[in-house]
């Protein structure tokens, strides 16, 4: 079906990203996976390409676009090639919305030019070893001491945490109240060069191996009060504000992964022969790919509707939950079926379908587990 969500500018940008991946990423991607992240200078290349600054206002060195569609193009092209841009997604899709909405003018002038160029890579630290999805239960504290906060605690599963230059750390600046467990949380933009800030283990994951994920610890880290993002005590409110866009970003990459899996499988079955015939000639193969293509089309239509809603300021948390839940489940089914069509070679990492399979599993966990999303959807339909 013809898509209407993208215009000529988006397609020209798509051509640029596709060429960049072919020249700068695909030839060395195996090295990135072995290292656990891209080389640091890769992010400067992304900065030179302009992808970090698309949604950053022009006065801070960006392009001033407000649409999410350019980020969707990047997700689709990375999936198409079976690669990842490492910490790019967290930097642009998670951190940037907080800086734009809650940063004051001084902070934007101080941080955004470096954000755009790739000189300052960012991450966000919410999850703790004992909290998971229960953000209100976090134990990391930041106590005011004159013109600084003193930060103590630990975070885990921090994507981009190894190479980040500044991390948005969610910490408790005052105790929770019996009436509201979510009260008292704040967001501090912490310089990773600060004394007492430490990167622990780089976590070894099943998939997403070119994206670094780390444990962080804070021991009496002194954070200037001018690095508080927004107002003290409103952190939980800020976090929920961006969840819809975060979940749409995951849904977009999940749909794109499923679409890429169909294309990888289609090419493979046309080339592979068994019993003297191509695998594509068997009715089972045709039916499986037809099923997968249908699910991908449904996911694409839902993603496109939600992208338009986000750009119009109308995407609700429940809408985003529906989109992420559906697209990640489609991804799981489609990638699995397409791997099966590869036979034994589907289990070999040199084939992109194997990486897609390993990468797919986390999408039903991060950004809100499928179970959490079902709770949101059930509440929205008043069940």
Automatic annotation (TrEMBL):
Residues 233-381 form the Acyl-CoA dehydrogenase/oxidase C-terminal domain. Residues 7-118 form the Acyl-CoA dehydrogenase/oxidase N-terminal domain. Its cofactor is FAD. It comes from the Bacteria. Keywords: FAD, Flavoprotein, Oxidoreductase. Belongs to the acyl-CoA dehydrogenase family. PANTHER family: ACYL-COA DEHYDROGENASE, ISOVALERYL-COA DEHYDROGENASE, MITOCHONDRIAL-RELATED. This is Acyl-CoA dehydrogenase family protein. It comes from Actinomadura monticuli.
């Amino acid at each position: 079906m013809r898509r209407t969500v993208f215009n000529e500018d988006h397609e020209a940008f798509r051509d640029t990203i596709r060429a960049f991946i072919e020249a700068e990423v695909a030839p060395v991607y195996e090295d990135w996976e072995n290292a656990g992240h891209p080389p640091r200078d890769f992010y400067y290349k992304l900065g030179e390409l302009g992808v970090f600054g698309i949604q950053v206002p022009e006065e801070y060195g960006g392009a001033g676009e407000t649409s999410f569609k350019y980020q969707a193009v990047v997700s689709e092209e990375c999936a198409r090639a079976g690669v990842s841009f490492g910490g790019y997604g967290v930097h642009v899709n998670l951190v940037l919305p907080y800086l734009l909405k809650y940063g004051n003018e001084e902070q934007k002038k101080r941080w955004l030019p470096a954000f755009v160029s790739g000189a300052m890579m960012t991450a966000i630290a919410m999850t703790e070893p004992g909290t998971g999805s229960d953000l209100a239960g976090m134990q990391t504290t930041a106590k005011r001491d004159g013109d600084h906060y003193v930060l103590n605690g630990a975070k885990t599963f921090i994507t981009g945490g190894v190479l980040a230059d500044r991390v948005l750390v969610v910490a408790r600046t005052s105790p929770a109240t019996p009436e509201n467990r979510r009260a008292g949380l704040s967001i501090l933009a912490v310089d990773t060069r600060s004394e007492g800030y430490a990167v622990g283990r780089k976590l070894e994951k099943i998939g997403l191996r070119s994206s670094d994920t780390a444990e962080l610890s804070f021991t009496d880290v002194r954070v200037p009060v001018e690095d508080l993002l927004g107002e003290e005590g409103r952190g939980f409110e800020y976090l929920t504000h961006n969840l819809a866009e975060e979940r749409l970003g995951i849904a977009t990459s999940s749909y794109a992964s499923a679409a890429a899996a169909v294309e990888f499988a289609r090419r493979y079955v046309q080339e592979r022969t068994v019993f003297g015939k191509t695998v594509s000639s068997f009715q089972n193969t045709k039916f499986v790919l037809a099923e997968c293509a249908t699910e991908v089309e449904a996911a694409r239509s839902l993603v496109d509707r939600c992208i338009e809603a986000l750009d119009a300021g109308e995407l609700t948390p429940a809408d985003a939950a529906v989109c992420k839940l559906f697209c990640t489940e489609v991804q799981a089914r489609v990638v699995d079926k397409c791997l099966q069509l590869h036979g034994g070679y589907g289990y070999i990492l040199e084939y992109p379908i194997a990486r897609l399979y390993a990468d797919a599993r986390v999408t039903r966990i991060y950004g809100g587990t499928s179970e959490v999303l079902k709770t949101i959807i059930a509440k929205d339909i008043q069940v």
